Amino acid sequence: MTTSDKKKIQQDFKENMDYDELLNCMRCGFCLPSCPTYIETGHQEKYSPRGRIALMKGITDGVVEPDEDIAHSLDLCLGCRACEPVCPSGVQYGHLLADARTILQHHKKQSVPVKMVRKGIFNGLFPHQDRVEKATGLLGFYQRSGLEKVGRKIGFMNLFPKSMAAMEKILPQAPKRREIKARPRYFAHDGEKKATVALFTGCLMDTIFFKTNNATIKLLQKAGCDVVIPENQLCCGALNGHNGEMEKAREMAKQNIEAFEKSDADYIITNAGGCSAFLIEYDHLLKDEPEWAKRAKHFVTKLKDISAILVDLDFQKTHRLRLPEQTITYQDSCHLRNVMHTFREPRMLLQSIEGAHFVEMEGADTCCGSAGDYNIVQPEMAMQILDHKMEKVEKTAAKTIVTANPGCLLEMKLGVDRAGKSGKVRAVHIADLLLEAVD
Ligand code: SF4
Ligand code: SF4
């Protein structure tokens, strides 16, 4: 980084960081024990929330020069936001991190191939659900045609980074594109009608995890909801937002708000913690555009996770939930817990299943290492965190690990595979498990 680059970054921090929010941190350190990277790095301050805030403030004040080490400190943050609920000052760490990453991303010198890959993913893929569907169609073809088996045999995936090769093994069976296209956009309630809800289908949830979206729809119907699937909705924008591509994320937010306004539903339902946390901050994302901020506010007031709406509608009291005898445990989605504040409801639902013995896992509220694309871009730290998480799973003796976010689900599947427990322990989304359990 040249001196001129450093000065430009400092200037951008000065102009764009929320200085009041930086000042909010009173350096008490209450957040330190909740931070996975602080713990996993042997308590290094620069990998803690307090340390990172101090570095951001130092750059903004012009007393700290940005360098590779600081960029690494911010890159190593999981963005899990476990530091927020425990902060007595209510520091909005997630917003500070997003702003700092956006500035650093803007100034990053990238090679042409990296720029092209980023452009392809953040501009060319996620903002176009039809392309995500096409990509899933290719994955399905790869899985069904026998290429997957041949590829594994000849070590084709060894050409890719280890972290991607590991992920390939645990991806679920992708649906056929025509299956996705054939799904209706309206589903009527079962029994007594209690609400009309609009489902936020998501990009990965409506392709690779299509089955889980269908389970979610069935649960909502059984709970007494008319379910509508608004057209023209797309990916929430979280992957763009977390990777410093805020402008694109804002465009995606606007398209989603418009799509759901037309549905006029009582609630907007999500089944992915990572998406819901991004969706619920659309008003913050669009805060500088008053008209959109107002529409975003209306949007976020309707947002609810699937577990929360089911508990609100007394689903576990009006339906008998039953499974074969087994021990189950729950891994929180960080964003569902720390941003949506939904953590009691999944446990209430799981504890009401007859035959299932629910065991709370020590540290269920700490990140599993998935964190969006973190396990791809920071594989070493992600695997260190995951292996420690699997030690905690082992202590519960659970045969079923339940999660509420696609990234966490894949990560737990990977953890099971790494721990050599495939076939003995399974990881499952809460919507799939509840549908399996309901009479
Ligand atoms: S708990 Fe909050 S105020 Fe205290 S050091 Fe951490 S971020 Fe700062
Ligand atoms: S978001 Fe998570 S990893 Fe990052 S500073 Fe906060 S607790 Fe630590």
TrEMBL record:
Pfam families: CCG (PF02754), Fer4_8 (PF13183). Its EC number is 1.1.99.14. It catalyses: (R)-lactate + A = pyruvate + AH2; glycolate + A = glyoxylate + AH2. It is an enzyme of class 1 (oxidoreductase). Keywords: 4Fe-4S, Electron transport, Iron, Iron-sulfur, Metal-binding, Repeat, Transport. Residues 15-45, 68-91 form the 4Fe-4S ferredoxin-type domain. It comes from the Bacteria. Binds 2 [4Fe-4S] clusters. Its cofactor is [4Fe-4S] cluster. SUPFAM superfamilies: alpha-helical ferredoxin (SSF46548). The keyword Transport applies. GO terms for molecular function: 4 iron, 4 sulfur cluster binding; glycolate dehydrogenase activity; metal ion binding. InterPro entries: 4Fe4S_Fe-S-bd, 4Fe4S_Fe_S_CS, Cys_rich_dom, Glc_ox_4Fe-4S, Helical_ferredxn. Component of a complex that catalyzes the oxidation of glycolate to glyoxylate. This is Glycolate oxidase iron-sulfur subunit. It comes from Sporolactobacillus sp. Y61.
